[in-house]
Amino acid sequence: MARTGRRPGPTSTRESIVAAAAECFAAQGFDATSMRGVAAAAGVDSALVRRFFGSKEQLFTEVATALIVPERALAAVAAGAPDAAGARLVRYFLSLLGDVSQPGPFFGLIRSAVDSEHAAALLRRLLADRVLGELATSFRSENAELGAALAASQLVGLAVARYAVRLDALTAAGTEDLIPWVAPVVQSYLTGTRIS
Amino acid sequence: MARTGRRPGPTSTRESIVAAAAECFAAQGFDATSMRGVAAAAGVDSALVRRFFGSKEQLFTEVATALIVPERALAAVAAGAPDAAGARLVRYFLSLLGDVSQPGPFFGLIRSAVDSEHAAALLRRLLADRVLGELATSFRSENAELGAALAASQLVGLAVARYAVRLDALTAAGTEDLIPWVAPVVQSYLTGTRIS
């Protein structure tokens, strides 16, 4: 579901370019991705990529807003008992990241945020404010902003440690092995309940 | 203390190169750093950098092993009550990262691990195995390896969210604001005690 891989059947050139860009950002990060490289991966002329999207920043925005849809994330996390919201969030986040041996384009957004201020700003807005901030606010936490940021730190850290640093214990663990450890942490950050 | 900035007074050419490399890795990450760029920053010929260190990978190893000294980290964390080890670890880690507005070379190691397998392997060995793994083992945790990896994920995530993504709530929070939230999480991972 997180994959933006080309669908079977006819797809527009625009969609092919966005899918190719998502793969480039995931494989190389923001800095090392070029409009020319994306064009080559999509099998189109680089002038066309520039005509459709203007700049690498705009292309990145297109990829990010296709992958992170705050309403969809919130709906997935909100459906169920409030005390299991952390578990649903961790499960949703891991499903977006995809398989450990072949991380999907969502990981590209996270790794790009490390070397691009544009990517960092998008993640702040889409993931931290509009998803985690909304969730923390829904729990009427007194520390909603800090709690949302700390939840983001744990999720982003899990992504980096599992998909980039590739710590053995995290690549070996499946989603259901990780949930019992990470979900209560995320839940406590979001609800603003300090662990004693 | 985390800074490898040039000391006042005479310093060897070798030390100047390592210090310049640390600054380049911190500012640009591993991929975008070149031996030529390091040489320019150190004010020496790039042939000299290559003669001293051979490759960018070896230069990175030199920087990392100067910054992460497992014995020193373990000594800092071990000194005191066991139930406050998490707090000491978070405080030590944040002191290595340095000021929010001007992250030191230690952040360069973390950001480099996102785009370099060589850097990732070093972080796995130095930080995850030799520091966090030792700590988790000292608590006789049944899940020492997973716990150490999860503690690493929270610490690395805090670094990425605060210094790269720069979430407002995390850049505004000082070390002592973060400790009450993050230390119990790290403590619970290291001791293998799940939060219910």
Topology:
Two copies of one chain form a homodimer.
Chain A: H1 13-32, H2 35-42, H3 46-53, H4 56-67, H5 70-78, H6 85-97, H7 105-115, H8 117-138, H9 144-164, H10 168-172, H11 175-191
Describe the structure.
The structure is a homodimer of 196-residue chains. Chain A is mostly helical and 196 residues long. The first copy, chain A, folds into 2 domains: 53 residues, Orthogonal Bundle (Arc Repressor Mutant, subunit A), CATH 1.10.10; 124 residues, Orthogonal Bundle (Tetracycline Repressor, domain 2), CATH 1.10.357.10. Chain A is 74% helix and 0% strand. In chain A, helix 4 packs parallel to helix 8, helix 5 runs parallel beside helix 8 and helix 6 packs across helix 11. The first copy, chain A, starts with 12 loop residues before the first helix and ends in a 5-residue tail after the last helix. At the A-B interface, helix 1, helix 7, helix 8, helix 9 and helix 10 of A face helix 1, helix 7, helix 8, helix 9 and helix 10 of B.
